[in-house]
Amino acid sequence: MKEYFAVLTSRAAEIICETFVVDPQRKIISCLGEFSVSKDDGLRALRGRMAFLFYPRRYSVLIGAGSKEAMTMYGEVPMLRDNPKVALEDGELDNCVSKAVWQAFEEGKARAIRQLSVGDIDLLLRDVRITSVLVDGKPWVSGEGKGGRKVIVSFLLTFILRPFERDCVNALPRRAAMHFAAETMSAAAHFLSREAGEGNFLFAAPFEDRTDLVLAMNKHIAHYDSFAWGWGYCVRVLAQSYKLSSSVAQGILARLGAMNASPRVLRRLARDVEGELQTLLRGLDHAADRARVRSILLYAPRLCGFQKFSKMVACIDKNTLFAGLDIVERDVTRAPRSLEITRPGEKKISFFGLALYAEYQSIPAHPLMNRFARRRMRWLLAG
Hints:
By secondary structure, the chain is of the alpha/beta class. It has helices at residues 43-50, 90-116, 162-170, 184-196, 231-242, 246-257, 263-272, 274-291, 304-309, 311-314, 325-332, 351-362, 367-382; strands at 3-10, 14-23, 28-38, 59-65, 70-80, 123-135, 138-139, 150-161, 176-183, 201-206, 211-217, 220-227, 296-298, 320-322, 340-342. The protein folds into three domains: 3-67 and 164-193 and 337-362, ATPase, nucleotide binding domain (Nucleotidyltransferase, domain 5, 2-Layer Sandwich), CATH 3.30.420; 70-158 and 365-382; 198-333, 2-Layer Sandwich (Nucleotidyltransferase, domain 5). Helix 5 (231-242) crosses helix 6.
């Protein structure tokens, strides 16, 4: 039976909706296309578009929030048992999960308040899930009757702004269900850490007005920082240099990123914006020094054209990965569940769309552990 998905990704000025169909039997993802809605147009514009998606079928919605709208944290909580020879039963596991959820909640709440710059009343604990439980390095199995000294509970926790959550829910028709919501960059970083086998790294992605950074350190992943550099800076340089409107300059920058021009033109354009690229690289270098990591994963498809025509970009530290979408799919990641990605015509799924879907699919089905986690979450919300 085919499954229908819509992935909503929030950007600074717009919300992008990607649609695709998954055929589990044939193991194929068919990309149907995308549309965007300006945030200035309000909730009504998004609701109108969502109402006609896949009509009259039911479909699932995955939400990718911005770093100013949600905080997602992946991590683990280690615990030592007093009696390692005694079998770890459901009752003790419930206690371990409760301790892990409480610790994650306290850390995540403080982090969310700092990151989102809001008070408690504006925060909503959107999701908490147990992704794995290891006992002395081996997965715990219910009823196995084995003991162990060290228990490690891995978790996923998401806080989201109440107004953003409310707007997303109100934009959906009744036949649509929100199954997963996370901060996009953190989910993408976790996706890369699983698929690429990366250890400690800084994941960066430039947007229109800023570059967001996510730190993966010692199996903990969360938003790290952001700095004031975005593609809008390059657009302004091109617009001022050639007396162009912003829309025309954006088109030229897109051509440069796609290498859709003659080599002579591409070299000239690369030189025009090289100063801005140096600002980006200095920001990344400074952030990596502060985070004490050597590896930087940079998701910037528009830089693909610069690699060939800019000596400055080509000579970047070899630990930096310029991950344009084609590079990400070919060299870094694999389609989740061994699914083949098909692209009818020019339609394609973005890296962020693929990452959110992969994270949704990769969350283990641990009914018992997640029942414990949800119960603990209800206690936290009630308190």
